[in-house]
Amino acid sequence: MAKSKFEYVRQFEQDDRCLPNCWLVVRVDGKAFHRFSDAHNFEKPNDKRALDLMSRCAERVMDEFKDICLSYGQSDEYSFVFRKDSLVYNRRASKLMTSVSSLFTSAYVFHWPEYFPDSMRYPPSFDGRVVLYPSDKNLVDYLSWRQADCHINNLYNTVFWSLVQSGGLSPKQAEERLRGTLSSDKNEILFQEFGINYNNLSPLYRKGTVIVREPVPDETAPAEGGKKSGKQKCTKLTSMNVDIIQKDFWNKYPFLLDDVS
Question: CATH number of the domain that 135 lies in?
Answer without folding.
Answer: 3.30.70.3000
